[in-house]
Design goal:
Layout: H1 4-13, H2 17-46, H3 51-59, H4 61-94, H5 100-112, H6 115-126, H7 133-138, H8 147-173, H9 176-183, H10 188-217, H11 220-226, H12 236-245, H13 249-280
């Protein structure tokens, strides 16, 4: 039986059909103008001079070096952030300690700081004229304008993604299962491996996907610390910039299309994970 209260609730949460169609149309127009058309333009420009030119741009030595460095950076940065993110989320969600709010603020710091500023911070720390630069130079160890600096900058920029996906998930799950396991005789590691980690697996995968996408596409911080040395310290985004500035548009869009493909794969994986989580909830 429909009550007046239910009628008012339904009226408050149901918009007229024309408003729904208008909102949907505006959303589709926005997505077409700012997402689909640029994406189509990238692939059109990449293939404009033929498939041979496209493939040649991807297998050119500098392009292969940029692809290899991008993958190496992601392979190092993502597992590090996976470890740090799990540790930070577990500590914040499951334990009470002094300085928890400060730790949360530090986790969010890369979101608040411009990537270019982050890169400059590493230059001030590890550059030749920086605080640790002379000592590193004496040890014949180079961070800035080398692979270690690129990895450090990428780790800093991508640090929040895993932790920020896991913290609300673990907080929503509560501590009851872990407390029950400890009461039954499990130690801390057994509780983590058998209770906490299985409960966070989908959120963990989601955070890793986002972290990996940002690691491969990071430009600002990496641009500052890389030195733009062709074949050595250029990642794929930096290589695209150099090719475009040299008016080598076909090669620039070819490498950009590869980044776009990686982004689409990331989006597909993200959608699959979201669907799986929805099915389990």
């Amino acid at each position: 039986m429909t009550t007046p209260l239910n009628t008012h609730i339904q009226a408050a949460t149901t918009e007229p059909r024309w408003i729904r169609y208008l909102l949907i149309s505006l959303t589709l127009i926005f997505l077409t103008l700012f997402l689909l058309l640029p994406l189509i333009a990238v692939f059109t420009q990449a293939l404009q001079e033929g498939i041979n030119v496209y493939l040649t741009a991807l297998i050119e030595p500098d392009a292969l070096a940029a692809i290899r460095l991008t993958l190496i950076t992601a392979i190092i940065a993502v597992p590090l952030n996976l470890f740090f993110g799990i540790a930070a989320a577990w500590a914040i969600a499951k334990f009470d300690f002094k300085g928890k709010s400060i730790l949360l603020t530090l986790i969010d710091l890369p979101f608040a700081v411009s990537p270019v500023i982050a890169g400059l911070i590493f230059v001030l720390l590890f550059g030749l004229q920086g605080w640790l630069g002379p000592w590193l130079s004496a040890q014949n160890f180079q961070i800035i304008f080398a692979v270690p600096g690129i990895v450090l900058a990428t780790v800093f920029i991508t640090f929040p993604f895993v932790a920020r996906e896991l913290i609300p998930l673990l907080q929503a799950q509560g501590k009851e299962e872990e407390e029950a396991a400890i009461v039954l005789g499990a130690n801390g590691w057994q509780t983590f491996w058998r209770i906490t980690l299985p409960n966070m697996k989908w959120g963990l995968l989601y955070g890793v996907i986002l972290c990996n996408a940002r690691a491969m596409g990071e430009f600002g911080a990496v641009s500052v610390v890389s030195g733009h040395i062709r074949g050595l310290t250029n990642t794929m985004p930096l290589h695209v910039e150099i090719l475009y500035n040299e008016y080598n548009f076909a090669a620039a869009f070819a490498v950009a299309s590869l980044l776009a493909l990686l982004a689409l794969v990331t989006l597909i994986l993200k959608t699959i994970v979201e669907w799986r989580v929805h099915q389990l909830s």
